[in-house]
Amino acid sequence: MIENNSEIKENKKPLNFIESFIEQDIREGKNEGKIHTRFPPEPNGYLHIGHAKSICLNFGIAENYNGSCNLRFDDTNPVKEDIEYVDSIMEDVQWLGFKWAAEPHYASDYFEQLFEFAIKLIHSGKAYVCEQNAEQIKEYKGTPTEPGKESPWRNRSIDENLDLFQRMRKGEFEEGKYLLRAKIDMTSPNMHMRDPILYRIKYADHHRTGSKWCIYPMYDFTHGQSDFFEGITHSLCTLEFEVHRPLYNWFLDQLTNQSYRPRQIEFARLNLTYTVMSKRKLLQLVQEKRVSGWDDPRMPTICGLRRRGYTPEAIRNFADRIGVSKHDGFIDVALLEHSIREDLNKKAIRVMGVLDPVKVIITNYPEGKEEFLEATNNPEDESMGKREVPFSRELYLEQEDFMEIPSKGYFRLSPGTEVRLRYAYFIKCNEVIKNKDGNILEIHCSYDPDSKGGKAPDGRKVKATLHWVSAKHAINAEVRLYDRLFNVEDPDGDKEGRDFKEFLNVESLQVLTNAKLEPFILNAKAGDKFQFERKGYFCVDKDTMPVKPVFNRTVTLKDSWEKQKGK
Ligand code: ATP
Ligand code: MG
Questions:
Q1: Do residues 67 and 331 lie in contact, with contact meaning Cβ atoms separated by under 8 Å?
Q2: Who lines ligand 1 at CB under 6 A?
Q3: Is 223 exposed, middle or buried (0-12, 13-18, 19+ CB in 10 A)?
Q4: Do residue 424 and residue 396 come from a single domain?
Q5: Residue pair 6/33 in contact by the 8 Å Cβ criterion
Q6: Residue 551's domain spans which residues?
Q7: SS3 assignment, position 93
Q8: 504 DSSP 8-state letter
Q9: Which residues does residue 449 pair with via DSSP β-bridges, in sequence order?
Q10: Which of 39, 238, 265, 336 to mutate to test the pocket of ligand 1 (most atoms within 8 A of CB)?
Q11: Tens digits of residue pLDDT in 264-309
């Protein structure tokens, strides 16, 4: 028996239109008040941030209304699907923090039931075996403004249809020879109702059913029925399926006269600026080696975002923030970046890392001396404690934090100026040592021993506080600076026939091989996240090795895209 355990959500935020429908259905006692959603990916690629929106919506609704959510692989096209994708999809959904009800489901588990349903349709004169080829079908289909024409095979006898369909299943015919079609209405204003195809012959092994089948059901014939077989109450899908809804309902009408029935509700898919979201295009980037793989940190895939340093919480907050709507539009990718900054600001330990180093010698600091200075792990959260940072006579500073001839408004280190070293001392630059080519080898400074902790006893002020790393304690690391993969807001849009790959940002990856990090990061493992003070949020990459740690920049501290573009 179906248990009625759903309840109307206690209102914190205004309901979105899907929640309003759901609450109305609960109030009306539809499906005995039960709420059961599903997330139905086709295992033909890796999940991306658009899927994350759908996952958060489907699983989120199930959580909010004490319902459940199925994971269902919509695996009806054996040619493009693969077990690699099935595994990655499960990993990604779990990583986002969701649990599907019971075991994962597969549309291919229903092949037998769907076949029987097709037989039932033939018996009731609502399906027929057609011999038209793709071209003829197109010709007979008509256009949205002109009615179609009936196929000459539409009025075969039921017995002949049954015989042919069963022989299609047995593999007696070559691909393309026959199709099974629904007999609905070739003059319907809705093109999807003009005798849609239900089955086609395809001699391809399926990743689950092997060579058992040589006919495969079409998406429309599979989806709603799978919803029905699983007891789904609300089938949430993207807007392009709105025009399929009459067909979805038509199949349900033929399948059942019970009061239980799933309800399809459409919402706008997520489009992000500076991003392509089509699986086909993402696959192209991978196959053409424009990126290092599906999990390249520049990819909008869940595994790419994970490797980049995104957290499940940031993605869920993002999904919550963008909400759902009925109208297609673009979300600024800066909003996604904001979500990860906001989350890491609370969670990430601050460390100092010099990405592009220059050597600094504190000439009045005793040789061989070292001391450990106290640093705050996260000023947003005292419970994250303190750590000790080693200081010594030779340090690294960021090259850009020194200017021999400072430009107007430059307050960082330059000859004669004094700055604060974070958590350490005031230092003043006295001399610049160069090689014969004029390149800076070392900067010689003196420190004020009375300014320990970064405060001068006489209360004098400095205009800059710089991060630094003690040279002899420094860990050498590789740092990969990632940026947006595309240069234009809508790389996918119609640009006078230009290919989306023409808009790839050639500066989307910059590899720094000589970064110097404080020793605190030494035991960090792949996936650990840090804020490098003044530089951004960084995460340990899976390529990391004890002898050569590798870090990915997740995001800069502030949105600097517009500034960079304008430079
Ligand atoms: P395909 O073109 O291969 O069908 P798809 O992006 O629709 O690509 P599916 O695997 O069918 O991929 O998608 C699974 C679910 O995720 C579907 O319910 C789909 O509506 C939803 N989904 C896919 N892309 C987005 C997106 N950009 N925003 C929101 N939901 C999406
Ligand atoms: Mg799809």
A1: no
A2: 40-42, 44, 50-51, 53-54, 237-238, 269-270, 277, 279
A3: buried
A4: yes
A5: yes
A6: 279-349+477-566
A7: helix
A8: B
A9: none
A10: 238
A11: 999 999 999 999 999 999 999 999 999 999 999 999 999 999 999 9
